[in-house]
């Protein structure tokens, strides 16, 4: 009896038992995951819904701008101008207003986004003085719409201006004003299709949500129901428990990525220009980082509600400060600094580089090592903070 | 002195959280195969003391050994030698009866053959054969508690810690539960149990009563009743617990 425990320890070859313990933990975890209907829904429904619906809404092109025209001139030229504007496809002629005040009312009632006022002597001035002025008023409540709407209108008017000049200027005569015309071609996304740009980014957000937040919710749930206490009094070691949690969600993250890439191909015809191997290599490392984050979240929260709220908050920051919707280059310096400590930024960048440009491992190596750094820091922090004893 | 016959030994074991002394220099000894009742009002420090003995919490000062292992340095050895059932229900509700047994036995390093053989035996004994492949969630509370106890001693530990194991269970099931405890004790497992039911205290070989972090009384139930000149453990408990200055949590 005295040597009972000594004997037992002799009978237990350490490493073999450890691998076996991990196997039991993984078996339990997978059983629980695939038995939970809400997880199944998240795995299959979330990518489908997010990838099939969101990219259509996340389009920067502004269409259907409501235009209110105040034409004091009623000339041939003014009618031509309005015609040109409305036939561009971006504007919808809301109405012809008799006066500027009248048109302003439409703006106030949110029925018009833009007012174009054509002065009474527009045609006359254009012909006699070779120049004319137009007035444009923009409803700037929706900043994006106002900006782009104004720019579209300006370029249409310029275009019209050129046409008019061309008609007047006789061939042998030179244009008195030199003009530089800029033409551009869009590389890597020739048709400027926003879906090519958004779908890879949204996919990253999906993978992040599964990696970081499902994992942290899962761990916190064990805290909440008290089973973690039970595990803590067993010989299961800290790293066993953590690996038992991380491995299933690591696999789940790669599964979501696969589903997402398949959907992107089927629904939008997006086939990565670069190699899938590069994407998966990066994703494998990236998932280690976000899983570390999930683990860290779970050590700082004691119930699922807290974890959920914290996740929600972090997700907002992650999405808005990752360059998914807005360009990082136009952010203020402090916001740029935040995007640099946001792992999502790097994956979105890599996804776009590989999917659109066909970048290889060498091109993304800086990103890869940065994210690897995140993985090491976050996991170390989480493991230190995850206490088995108090 | 730790003898061959000692399962748990504590000497001036203390746990402080800041200024608050949750467990105040308790000393006691539990013999092998004994059913030791660990009583006290809510907030008296029972759970904290138990957590230290299980290796979940590091003592502030004092000495203790569990199954011959030191609570400071040999917690991993302690964990291999004990079973634990907490007042919170601790089986996985979304796993079946069989899966729970297999999981817990597995993480204690039991072989597949051992697990298979003993599971069959246990299911038969608990009359749970028909429920073996049902989720634990679907079992009545009393069955869950009995199953949790069986799982806690499945790996044949030297000592099992039971933290209010019969909370919320009907009297008939409580009776059956105590029969299981007796059976386990007969097979040589030391039982360390906390309870609020004084009739259960009567079933113990010896009981200790904690008041404000200290052990105020420790003896057989019969001897305690004699000392305090009362007829039941209920009265012993009330006499001691009334002295408590600490508010219950």
Describe this structure as you would to a colleague.
Chain B: It comes from Niastella caeni. Chain B: This is ABC transporter ATP-binding protein. The complex is a heterodimer of chains A (390) and B (249). Chain A is mainly α and 390 residues long. Chain A has 15 helices and four strands. Chain A folds into two domains: 237 residues, no CATH class; 104 residues, abc type-2 transporter like fold, CATH 3.40.1710.10. In chain A, helix 8 runs antiparallel to helix 14 and helix 11 runs parallel beside helix 15. The two termini of chain A are 32 Å apart. Chain B has 249 residues and is α/β, with parallel strands linked by helices. Chain B has one domain: 3-Layer(aba) Sandwich (Rossmann fold). Chain B contains nine helices and ten strands. In chain B, the strands form two sheets. Chain B has a six-stranded mixed sheet with strand order 6-7-8-3-9-10, sandwiched between helices. In chain B, helix 3 crosses helix 4 and helix 5 packs parallel to helix 6. Chain B starts with 5 loop residues before the first strand and ends in an 8-residue tail after the last helix. In chain B, 47% of the residues are buried. The model of chain B has no long low-confidence stretch (mean pLDDT 90). At the A-B interface, helix 1, helix 2 and helix 9 of A face helix 2 and helix 3 of B.
């Amino acid at each position: 009896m005295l040597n009972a425990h000594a004997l037992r320890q002799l009978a237990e070859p350490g490493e073999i038992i450890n691998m076996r313990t991990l196997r039991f933990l993984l078996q339990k975890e997978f059983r629980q995951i695939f038995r939970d209907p809400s997880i199944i829904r998240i795995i299959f429904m979330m990518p489908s819904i997010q990838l099939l619906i969101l990219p259509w809404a996340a389009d920067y092109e502004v269409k259907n701008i409501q235009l209110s025209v105040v034409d004091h001139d009623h000339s041939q030229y003014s009618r031509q101008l309005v015609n040109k504007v409305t036939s561009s496809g971006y504007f919808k002629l809301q109405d012809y207003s008799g006066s500027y005040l009248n048109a302003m009312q439409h703006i106030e009632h949110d029925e018009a986004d833009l007012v174009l006022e054509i002065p009474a002597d527009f045609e006359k001035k254009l012909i006699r003085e070779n120049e004319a002025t137009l007035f444009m008023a923009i409803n700037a409540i929706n900043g994006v719409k106002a900006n782009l709407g104004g720019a579209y209108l300006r370029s249409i008017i310029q275009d019209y201006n050129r046409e008019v000049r061309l008609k007047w200027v006789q061939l042998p005569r030179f244009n008195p004003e030199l003009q530089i015309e800029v033409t551009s071609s869009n590389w890597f996304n020739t048709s400027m299709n926003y879906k090519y740009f958004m779908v890879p980014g949204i996919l990253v957000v999906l993978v992040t949500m599964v990696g970081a937040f499902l994992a942290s919710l899962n761990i916190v749930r064990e805290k909440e129901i008290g089973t973690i206490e039970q595990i803590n009094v067993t010989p299961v070691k800290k790293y066993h428990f953590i690996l038992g949690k991380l491995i299933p969600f690591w696999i789940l993250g790669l599964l979501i990525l696969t589903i997402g890439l398949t959907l992107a191909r089927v629904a939008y015809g997006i086939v990565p220009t670069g190699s899938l191997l590069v994407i998966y290599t990066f994703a494998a490392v990236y998932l280690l980082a976000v899983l570390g984050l999930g683990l860290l979240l779970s050590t700082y929260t004691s119930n699922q509600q807290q974890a959920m709220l914290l996740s929600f908050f972090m997700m907002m920051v992650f999405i808005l400060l990752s360059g998914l919707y807005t360009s990082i280059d136009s952010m203020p310096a402090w916001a740029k600094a935040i995007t640099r400590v946001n792992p999502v930024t790097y994956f979105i960048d890599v996804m776009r580089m590989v999917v659109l440009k066909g970048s290889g491992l060498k091109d993304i190596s800086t990103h890869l090592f940065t994210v690897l750094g995140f993985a090491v820091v976050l996991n170390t922090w989480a493991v230190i903070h995850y206490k088995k004893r108090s | 002195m730790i003898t061959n016959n000692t399962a748990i030994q504590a000497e001036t074991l203390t746990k402080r959280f800041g200024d608050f002394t949750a467990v105040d220099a308790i000393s006691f000894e539990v013999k092998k195969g004994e059913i030791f009742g660990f009583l006290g009002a809510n907030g008296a420090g029972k759970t904290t003391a138990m957590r230290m003995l299980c290796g979940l919490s590091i003592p502030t000062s004092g000495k203790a050994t569990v199954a011959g292992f030191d609570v400071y340095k040999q917690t991993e050895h302690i964990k291999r030698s004990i079973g634990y059932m907490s007042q919170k229900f601790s089986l996985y509700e979304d796993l079946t009866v069989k899966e729970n047994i297999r999981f817990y036995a597995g993480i204690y390093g039991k072989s597949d053959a051992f697990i298979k053989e003993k599971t069959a035996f246990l299911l038969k004994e608990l009359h749970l054969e028909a429920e073996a492949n049902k989720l634990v969630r679907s079992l009545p509370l009393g069955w869950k508690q009995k199953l949790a106890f069986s799982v806690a001693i499945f790996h044949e530990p030297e000592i099992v810690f039971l933290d209010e194991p019969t909370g919320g269970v009907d009297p008939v099931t409580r009776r059956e539960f105590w029969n299981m405890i007796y059976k386990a004790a007969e097979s040589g497992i030391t039982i360390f149990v906390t309870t609020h039911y004084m009739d259960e205290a009567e079933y113990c070989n010896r009981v200790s009563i904690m008041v404000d972090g200290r052990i105020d009384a420790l003896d057989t139930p019969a001897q305690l009743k004699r000392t305090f000149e009362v007829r039941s453990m209920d009265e012993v408990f009330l006499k001691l617990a009334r002295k408590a200055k600490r508010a219950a949590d």
